[in-house]
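Run folding on both entries below.
>entry_1
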Amino acid sequence: MFTTFSPVLPSAQLSIDTSCPSPGTVRVAVVGEIDLSSSDVLRVKLLNVLSALHPHRIEVDLAGVTLLDCGGLTVLVVLGQAAARNGCRLRITNPQPIVRRVLDLTGLLDVLTARFGQAPPPATTADMTASAGILAAA
């Protein structure tokens, strides 16, 4: 007996808008569902912003995000690590309650939502590395 799986296609419901509100800062507003089908689109966009614009700060506004699964979490962790390697700070803003809950349960809420003027929590690297390992196994 054979099982046929449908291919996972990028979500048509994901919208990504980039702006530069001040020198050295890039704001990326995301609207829609960040899941397995759309996380690659978001990953490529965010890494392109980092490599092409070389910002000091990237602010990812999740006010319009209605779902964040392990694929989306992985994108945020990978971007946070890439940003740190490039001397850039990543900050997540305006997470909706369901997204905030997912970030909180994974231990990433305080790490990813720390204000730019604040030092990230001491366990930032360990938390992100541990979360990346857990998410990669998922």
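>entry_2
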Amino acid sequence: MYPKEFVNYQNRLYWIYRKVKNDRIKEGFVQDIKNYWNCDLVVKHRHNEDDLLLFLREIPELEILN
């Protein structure tokens, strides 16, 4: 799966791993799914009338090693 959509959140760069409608996941299982998909962050996003959960993976900053 290649990153297609990026989000800048709190001065960090993330790529959107999955978008899921909020009503498709029970509230208590969001953390379990986040861990299963190895995501760093889950945020709620409102698009028109739909509430979405965005499962995000962080893109670490580049470090140059000698």
